[in-house]
Please model this.
Amino acid sequence: MKRKILGIAVLLAAVIAVGCVGTGDPAPADQATTPRAGMVPRFEIDPAWPKVPAKWRLGDPSSIAIDAKGNVWVLQRPRTLKPDQAAMAAPAIVIFDPEGNFIRAWGGPGSGFDWPEREHGIHIDHKGYVWVGGNNCAERALPGLKAVNDDQLIKFTQDGKFVMQIGRASQSKGNADTQNLRQPADVWVLPKTNEAFVADGYGNHRVAVFDADTGKFKRMWGAFGNKPLDSFKCPPPSLKAVPDGPGPQQLSIVHAIRVANDGTVYVADRENRRVQMFTSEGKFLKQFVRHNAPFARNVALSPDPDQRFLYVGGGVDIVVMDRHTLEIVEVIGGPGFLGGGHQIATDAKGNIYVAATGRGLQKLVFKGMVAAQSR
Model:
C-alpha cells in the first residue's frame, strides 16, 4: 500500500544550557574504539536539535530508533495534541538526519494491519525493517482513543509498506498466549539469530521471542527466568517506592529491552526499579536494583565493539553502567537536561537521543572519554 509522505515540525522548549558528565579534559578517544579502563563517556546537549519546519506539530515523543545511515526515527503520539493543534498533527513516525534536519514522515492507521491506538516503541532491525508497538488498553479511556487493546507488533519497510503483524488488537489471552502480545513496550532484533525480543510489556509481564521473518513464537520468560504469570491491571500500577531486597519474582512493566551483540539480554523492569540480565535463551544472570530513585525506564548500549556501557534512564538522570558487572560508573545530568526520558537510543558515533513524553526530544552529543569520578 502506498503511503503519503509528509513534512512536519514540532514546537519544543528551547534548551539554552549545556549539561556535561565526567571530569577533566576529554581524551582524544572515539567510542567506536575500546574504552580504556577507568574512563567514561562525556556528553553535551545539542541545543539546536532537531531542526523542523514550523507549520507542523508533534504530540508526545514516545520512542527513538536509529537506522544504518545514522538517521533518527521518532515515534510520537499525534492524538495527544490539544484540540486547537490537532489539525496540524504530524504522522506518527518522523525522521531526522543526525544534524536534526527533517527528512520525511509517515505512519498511522491503514489497510491490512492494526496500527496501535497509543504509540509506544519503535525499532529498526539489521535488515532495515521498522517495528512499531503500542500500549493502549481499553480501560484507560484516554481522550481521542478507541477502547482497543494494543496486543500486536507491526513491521514495515522504511517507506511505510506493511510487511507483517504479530498478534491482533484486543486478542490477548495473557502471558501464556503464543499468538498475541499484550501492550508490548519495546522490541529488539538480534542479527545473528534473526530473533525479535519483545518487552511484553504493560499488560503481560514477560520477554517473548519470535522469528523476525515469519513471526513464529519461539520462547518466553519472566523475572529471574521464571514462568511469567498473569496479573493484568489496566492502567498498570505505578509504584512510589520499592522495598529492600531483590524484588518480586515476576516482572512489572517490562518497559524496554536491548540485546547485545554477544546475545546478552537487558530488560528494564520499570516499576520494580531494576535491570535484569539474561542469556538469549532466558537464563537469568544478574540484576541491579536502584531502590532510592526512579530507574530502568529505558536501556541502550554503547557502540564500541564490546558494547562496554549500558545506559539506563531514571527520573532525573541517565546512569552509565558497566554492562558486564551492572555497576554504575557515571551519571548523566545537569542544567538543560530533560532527564531520564521515556525511551532512549544510541547511534554509531556514541550520541544518545532522548524521547521524553510531555517534555520533548534531546540529543546528547558524545564528546570523548574522561576519567571516571570516584563513586
